[in-house]
C-alpha cells in the first residue's frame, strides 16, 4: 500500500507494482533543487513528505511551503493550549461560544488561516476578527471573506485586510471543536532565485562572498564561520544587491544581518520592491548601528518580481527571505508554479489547489450572493 499526501488530504492506493520513491538530496527538491524540504522526515524528489507524511513544525500546506505564524517566537495563544499547534488533528479543544486569541510580538500581514475541526457541521460557525494591537477593544472584521474547503473537516479562511495586525481572534458557535490551527506567513519566493550584486568581496581562503549566498537557505549570522553571507567590495562606489523571482504578491521581508562588530554596515539600507523596473514598494532603515534581524511588512501586498537592497558603503546580507503568494487570479500547482485560476472562479481561487470558494448559507458559489 502506498500513501500520497497533498496538504491535509491523504490517499491510499493498493497496487500490485509500486515504483520506489526517490528521496530528495540534502533536504532540497525540484528540477533545480530550488525548494527546501520542510517535512518532519525527508521528502521525495517532488517534495512529497515521506515517513509519517507530516510537515515539520512551523510549516504547512502544499509541499509544506507555507510558513506558520502561530509558532513564531513569543507568540501567545489564549487559552494556552498546545493542542492547536501539535499538528495532530486527533487532539481537539471545545471552543463553543469561546474565543481563541493569537497575539504576535509585532504586527504581521494577514492573508489566510487554516482550521481543522472534528465535526464538519461546525465549520460555518467559525468567526475570525483582528486587532491592530494587543488590545481587543477595537476589532477589525474579516473583509471579503472567502472560504475554501481543503477536506471535509479543514477550512481555509481568506480575508482582505489593508492594515497589518497583531492579534487574531477566533470564535466558535454551536458545538465547535477546534483541532488544528495555522496562520499563513507566505512562501519564501526568494529562495535559490537569481541574484546579482554590484561587486563581490573575496578572501584567499574563504573565497567569494557572492550574491547567491544571501538566498541559499542558511540563516547563520556568523560571517566568518558560516561563510554563507554576501558582501560587496570595499571599493564599490554604489553597492547594491538584488534578487529576481516569479511575479508574486509580497507581504514580508526578513533580512538576516551579520551579528558581529561590523553589523553597522547594513545600517540605513534602502530596500526597493519593483516590477518591470517600476518601484512599487520602498523602505529605508532608520537604525544607526544595524540590528541582527530586520522584519519589514507590506500591508498593501504589492505584486513584485525584483527586490533591490543598497547602502552607501557595503551591502552584506547573511540571508534574505521574501514571503508572498501567487498573485490574485492564480494558484500554485503541484510543481510549485503559479498558473491561472479555473474559468469557474477566474479572479480568486484556492492558492494550493485552484478550487473555488464555498458558500455557507448561500446557494450560488463562488459568488455567494443568493
UniProtKB/TrEMBL annotation:
The Fucolectin tachylectin-4 pentraxin-1 domain covers which part of the protein? Answer: 186-328
Sorted alphabetically, which keywords does the UniProt record give? Calcium, Disulfide bond, Lectin, Metal-binding, Signal
Q: Is Signal given among the entry's keywords?
A: yes
GO MF annotation, one? metal ion binding
Q: Any keyword Signal?
A: yes
Signal sequence, start to end: 1-24
The organism's place on the tree of life at top rank: Eukaryota
- Briefly, what is this protein's role? Acts as a defensive agent. Recognizes blood group fucosylated oligosaccharides including A, B, H and Lewis B-type antigens. Does not recognize Lewis A antigen and has low affinity for monovalent haptens.
- What assembly does the database describe for this protein? Homotrimer.
What the record says about family reads:
Belongs to the fucolectin family.
Protein name (record): Fucolectin tachylectin-4 pentraxin-1 domain-containing protein
